[in-house]
Amino acid sequence: MKSTEASEPQRNIDDDLLPEYEFDYRKARPNRFVTQTTESPLTVELAPDVAEMFPDAAAVNEALRFLIRMTKNSSAHS
């Protein structure tokens, strides 16, 4: 029997979590790369035919703002 075998910890066969994966949550710190603002950008997936018409997010926002203005104008006249 090798001496290294005796020093290895006994593992439960049903336990698939290896010892090196154990995490000490007391040492956890907040992610410094996450923005601290409450506002986060909304991601929307455009259909391919719609995406062809808009080269970037600014173009999409401009079109949506135009649609909002048109909707407000038409509802004000009703």
3D structure, described in words:
The chain is mainly alpha-helical and 78 residues long. It has a domain at 42-78. Helices cover 37% and strands 0% of the residues. The protein contains three helices and no strands. The chain starts with a helix and ends with a helix. 0% of the residues are buried. The mean pLDDT is 78.
Topology, number of strands:
0
Unreliable sequence segments: none
- How is the biggest beta sheet arranged? none
Could you state the order of secondary-structure elements as H and E? HHH
Give the number of helices. Answer: 3
Work out the radius of gyration.
28 Å
Distance between the termini: 91 Å
Please tell me what the overall shape is. elongated
Structural class per helix/strand content? mainly alpha
Mean of pLDDT: 78
What percentage of residues falls in helices of 4 or more residues?
25-40%
Estimated share of beta-strand residues: under 5%
